[in-house]
Specification:
- By secondary structure, the protein is an alpha+beta fold.
- The protein contains 19 helices and 15 strands.
- It has helices at about 5-15, 25-30, 35-45, 65-75, 75-80, 90-95, 100-110, 135-145, 155-160, 195-200, 205-220, 235, 270-280, 295-300, 305-320, 360-375, 420, 440-445, 460-465, and strands at about 20, 50-65, 90, 115, 125, 165-175, 220-225, 230, 300, 325-335, 345-360, 380-390, 390-400, 405-415, 430-440.
- The protein is elongated.
- The structure holds phenylalanine (PHE).
- The site of phenylalanine has 11 residues, from strand 14 and strand 15.
Length: about 475
Amino acid sequence: MADGPVAELLLRRLQAADGGLDSAELAAELGVEHQAVVGAVKSLQALGEVIEAELRSTKRWELTAEGEEIAREGSHEARVFRSVPPEGLAQSELMRLPSGKVGFSKAMSNKWIRVDKSVADGPRVFRVVDSMEDEVQRRLQLVRGGQAEKLGEKEKSELRKRKLLTEVTLKTYWVSKGSAFSTSISKQETELSPEMISSGHLHPLLKVRSQFRQIFLEMGFTEMPTDNFIESSFWNFDALFQPQQHPARDQHDTFFLRDPAEALQLPMDYVQRVKRTHSQGGYGSQGYKYNWKLDEARKNLLRTHTTSASARALYRLAQKKPFTPAKYFSIDRVFRNETLDATHLAEFHQIEGVVADHGLTLGHLMGVLREFFTKLGITQLRFKPAYNPYTEPSMEVFSYHQGLKKWVEVGNSGIFRPEMLLPMGLPENVSVIAWGLSLERPTMIKYGINNIRELVGHKVNLQMVYDSPLCRLDAEPRPSQTQVAA
Ligand code: PHE
């Protein structure tokens, strides 16, 4: 938070400094972690022009753990030298000392010690000099004291080869006063209160969502629970009679989860019926005739459509006997691993409507779609045959766009296949009609937004949110919209 003590200290130091100051030096001066100063810099940056901060990377030499030990206790060769008394020491005994093996040859080549092999009970080590300079220790102590520049490149690289030194890159900020510099910064609100929420503004997507919700409620629909972004492949694909080798299940279209990678709780009775329908068929269908795998169905993913929630709701409905007709809707977020452009993000919202009743036909679907879209002010509709793995027949819904002067796709729809409904346990004469559309597209059209990044994400202009009018999806069709489509 920008009102933290480190931020205040930083501003006070900055006022006194001419030019600016380095974040790492300030951290050392204040006796705090560098990360604490970096945090203060970032929160001050978020306030606007109070400070300017430029990221710099500087290289610095640091001792390794072994380097630290040597700076403290002396080099292995020095320790070997010190353990040799004037009367000498058996080589075998010296080799058993902790620094013996590593220090012996270096102490030999430094000509600090010698070995006498003529001694009767084995080779014996003697001192050659009375005293020596432990250069390695001295150099490491220089580095530890922040005086690495006193060493030559050759000396440093030699110590690095011996793994006593490493060069680390330190990222620091060079902080200077901004155009709105001040040492007194106003406290930022950090907690949301109920008052702030009730006096706040709804984002355009939420305004349009509440309008859609209103329409569904007027039509007698009940909202389905959609409070899980993470879904199993089973509910997202398998329950919808989407074969396991379907391209939509590819990594390119779907975000799979690494952790937790697998869904453990699946209704196994029902899973068995789904397996059978995919691999062998049943209910009058030939199925897909492939080897259906439970492992594949357990794979967790970010749901790619809210039809997974519809599948769960229909399965729950099927468990209630006797069957009662139902009308469900949902409006929530879905995720697709797509190429991003001006109108597509990897996450968006879907609106979905589902009606389950005895003997529903394509005529009922068209009728419900007309009623739904008329409430949105869209009266000119056209239906185009389409394909979905889980609906048959399927129809894309187009409406004539006055502004664009052309037919644009506004939704997708269909009648759920018996291969999806019968394994759930729904009665044979019950059919389910459903449709889906995105929340983003009508919102962008409604508010005249051309780039999705102006609507979603960190570039959203809050002023746009304040200024966007209440959403009233034109309830009364305008005269021009009633003309017959070309
Ligand atoms: N799930 C479809 C989609 O993601 C939409 C849809 C819902 C189609 C219901 C048919 C029936 O585009």
